[in-house]
TrEMBL record:
InterPro entries: FAD-bd, FAD/NAD-bd_sf, Geranylgeranyl_reductase. The keyword Oxidoreductase applies. SUPFAM superfamilies: FAD/NAD(P)-binding domain. This is FAD-dependent monooxygenase.
Amino acid sequence: MSHTGVNAAEEFDAIIVGARCAGSATAIALAGRGLHVLVIDSARFPSDTLSTHLLWPSTMAEIHALGALPAVEEAGAPRLPIAEAILDETGWRTGYSPVSGIDYGMCLRRSHLDDALIRTASSLEADIRQQCRATGLISDDGRVTGIRYTDADDHERAAIAPIVIGADGRKSLVAREVGAKTPLISSRSGRSCYFAYWTDPRDDLRHIASQWRVDGLLGTAFPCDAGQTLCLLQPPVEFDDEFHGRKVTDAYREGVAALPGLARRLEGAEMVSRVRACTGIESYFRRSSGPGWALPGDAGHFKDPVTAQGIRDGYRYGRLLGERLAPILGSRGGPDPGAVDAATAEWAARREQDCVEIYQWTNVLASGSPPSPLEYEVYHRARDHPEYAQILSDIYNRVQAPSSMLPLTALPSLILGALRQPASSTREVVADVRTQVRRIRDDRNERRALVRASAG
C-alpha cells in the first residue's frame, strides 16, 4: 500500500475498482445522485466472464431499481416465469412470488448483462475507464485515500477520493491490500462447476428454468439469449480428475447423460461452445469495511453458484452501499471520514445479517452429498402441495428464508413421511434427523462466530 505524496492525482467523490455487477450498481447509485465517480476495470466491454448468470425475479427487481431493465431485456433472453426441480423422478414445478411487480427470471450472458449496467452508469455520467488495472492503494495515516493504476495506454496514474470501493471479485486487489483477504468464515464446496451452451429446439420449454439431481450429481438447463440454453453440471469434487484437460468435454457429456431428465431436455440440441470450468470453489464472508474502503460483491462475500445468488447480491448491496454513502459524500461541508466509515460498517453488518442464512443453505446444497431421506420427503411434499413448492421457489428468489422449508413444527410430519417411504430405512431416517439437528446447531454457532469476527 502506497502512502502520502501523491502528485497530479485526480480527485473524485468515490473510486470504484471493478465495473461489473457490484461496481456498476454502486456507480449508478452514486452518480445518479450527482456524485463524481471514477470506475476502472481491466476489461474492455462488452466482455464475458466466468459466470452461470441465472437471474431470479428478485435479481430482475434489482436491475429495475437500477434503471437498467429495458437495456437488459433488449438482449433478447426469454422470460422465465416457471421454476422446476427434479430429484430422481420426483419433481415440482411452480411460479414465483412477484418482487416489485416482477414474477419472472432470466438467463443472460454476462457480456450483454454487464454492458447494459455499464451503459446505464455511463448515462448518469459515471467516469468509467476500461482496460485500466489497479496496481495499489494510496493511504494516509492508515486510511485508504486513493488508488494507483495503469491506464489503457499503460501509463501510471493516480486518483484520490474519500472512499475506495473494491468491487474487483474473489481475487480482489483491494481486499488483499487492506488485509481483508483471509475470510471471517468460509466453506469449501463439495462440488465443481462445468457449463456450456446448447442450441435449444424446445420452444415449448423456453419459459422454464430446470434443475435435476441424481445421487450427488446436479445439472440445470436455463434458456438464455441467442436462442440457446445454458447447461450447467455440478458433480462432486471427487470426480474432478475425470474432467481434466482434453477429457473435460467427454466427461461433461457423460454427466449430462447420467441425468436422464437433463438428457431428455437436450434431445435434438447441439453443444455450440467449449466447456468452461470453475473448480476449487470456496464460499466466504470477508471483512468488508474499514477506514476509507468497502468491499461489495464477490470481493467481500461469495456463495457457491449452486443457488445462483451472486449477481442478485452484487446488485442489491452495491446499490445499498451507494445509497448509504451518497448523502455523506455529497454533504456541503465535505464528507466526514468518521461518518463514511460508520456508514460502510453498518452496510457490511446488514449484508452479513441478510445473507448468512442463504449462505449456509447454499453450503448444504454445495456439499455434493447424495439426497437424504428428509430431502426426498421435501420433494414429495412439494410435488403434492403447490403451496409448498412455492415456498421452495421463493427461497431461491429470496422472498422466504431457507428455514421456512423445514420449520421445526413441520419436522414430525416430514419424519413420519420419510419413514413411510419404502426406499428409506428407520436407521437412515434417524441418522438424517441427527444430521439436521447437528447442522442447525453448527449453523447457529457459525453465525455467532461471524458476528464476533466482524466486530473484532
